[in-house]
Input
Amino acid sequence: MTGLFESVFSPGSVDIMLNIGIIVLKIAILVGIVLLHVAYAPWFERKTIGHMQVRMGPMRVGYHGLLQPIADGLKLFFKEDIIPAQADKPIFYLSPVISVFTAMAALAVLPFFKGFVIANINIGILFILAMSSLGSYGIVMSGWSSNSKYAFLGGLRSSAQVISYEIAMGLSLVGVIIMAGSLNLTDIVEAQGKWPHQWFFLPQIIGFFVFFIAAVAETNRTPFDLAEAESELVAGYFTEYSGIRFALFFLAEYMGMILMAALGSICFLGGWHGPFDVPYLPFFWLWVKIMISLFVYYWIRATVPRYRYDQLMSLGWKVMIPLALANVVLTATIKILR
Amino acid sequence: MEQVRKDPLPDQQELVLSMGPQHPATHGVLRLVLELEGETVKKCTPHVGYLHRGIEKLGENRTYLNAMPLTDRLDYIASMSNNVGYCVAVERLLGVEPPPRAKFIRTMTAEMSRISSHLLWLGTHALDIGAMTVFLYAFREREWLLDLLETLTGARLTVSYPRIGGVRNDVSQEFLDSLWQFTEEFPGRLLEYETLIDQNRIWLKRTKGIGVVSAEDAINLGFTGPMVRGSGIPYDVRKFAPYDAYDQVEFEVPTGTAGDTYDRYRVRMEEFRQSNKIIRQCIEKLPKGPVMTPDSPKFTLPAKESVMQEMESLIHHFVLITKGPIASPEGEIYSAIEGPKGELGFYFISDGTGNPYRMRLRSPSYVHAMSLPYLTEGSLVADVIAVIGTMDLVLGEVDR
Output
């Protein structure tokens, strides 16, 4: 007993315990804040689109519907969790968890302000790309395990889409990696300056363009929301889900959007950099950039129709990937010539 | 029903997808059994009848006066057009001529219902293709029109406003003022919709070259309305066999060239403007006078005041309600009007009693729905949605 006590509380292990404690605290704070944002992202979306469509959006629960996310969450939480009799149950249970897990895990490498990043690893971008690719497993598996034709078609569409746009997105980020000379997201932010003309979106305008479109496609948003095309496939891959499992998919989708907005802000829009420092709010500029990106997401949704499946694929393979490749070649050539 | 196998055979290559009757894009209770190979439609079998109410048979058991509210339930998006079509048919059968003011009011309200029907079409068609905002913009204007109809008739959808030999009540000046205000603002609103989708690349990609019907095929398939006009044939009952006041107003019949979904969209957008023009002309030219024909007590209900005071009117009223128009001539008649969806025909066989011996409806949506296999086989699932949208199907009219 004494031995164990001594080994646990020896000076070295106290240090480790303290570090673990700090990391756990950081994770708790981060996940708490992000979940709050994820809860209010749909509210923000409904309000934005509502006002664009000459209506008010949610108004009933709380002041201007501010408590609507909580009401929705409670409703989904207490709803009956219906599992189709023909469903492949273990996979059916697992797939929403995969979706949420991968979306959350990717948050670990995002630098929210100078010095705040949970895992400052050297392959930050690769980690995020890997996690968002893994997230499509949740979609494919839910489509397969529901044993429903609509969900199945949704899953098929989504897997094809995510694979095609994953490539374009990865290639569009290569330009940024070349310019910053690092895969570490903190280094990428450090390589950009305080003012907008020092950010990477100007020299990497093609990359930014490809990244932006790929990010919309990656998160299954309009005009690329084929996997959940309401008018065609009812609700797509999560047609058979209800209650809390549906809420998990919902959570994963909005978390993916925030993640992509954050990644875009970090790689192209200077991350936490801003023209001036806001005291006590070091994450202010990143937050503003993420919110603007989300607004643009919603704006697009309120404006454009939906692509057809084959048109989406040809856009991805015939336009996006060649553009991104050309950008890589261009950036690399300029980098060598300098 | 043999296409609907619960367990597909193991060697079967196609995925049998039952789209509808509960499906967000089939606009009611249309059911399509699609045999898919990947996302390509190999075979499409429409199933109708989920909304069958036997309106044709019910019409045979009611007097000509009493059967009119049934027609509200045909194309419930534009019930005014159905009412007008029914009344025009019965008037032609009985030889009644409504007064000019009633004709203009009918023309005006029928065009209102055409606009409100096309607005619903535009909104849902755009929503099916994914453009969400157009739907809410279109419903904003539709709401105005429905409110106007409510002030005139007391009902928003099932109006039952025209009568055999006229219309039920006269229009008020406030109604005309508000409608004039609508026609002033509506062209600007149309530009708003067009800003969103007219030149939108995705919209063009989703509609151009989709659901193409050549002019010859359109005729062979029995298409009418915007479906046939999109293929370049200027067939419009309002021009070919004018009824009500359509021979006294000026309007054009817009046509397309390619016969695809986009051209039909353009045709309907142009029809908005033409209908708007017709309504304005009707308000300007609206003649004074009664709104019910006064001289045919055997066909039309007498005025309420005279029923209260005169014995003869009371008897006429009683007989008309219980037995129908007693002096209806024997014979048969087919009479068509231009509904928002196409040629809406009423066919009556009269045996001289107050009820029709046979009442048959030629509904455009039914004819269009039957061409779904022709238009969708070989295309993708997403195009099926676009084609259903472009047909402007209303299942109340398909199933009757």
Summary: The domain at 55-296+328-399 of chain B is CATH 1.10.645.10 (Cytochrome-c3 Hydrogenase; chain B). The radius of gyration of chain B is 22 Å. The longest helix of chain B spans residues 100-129.
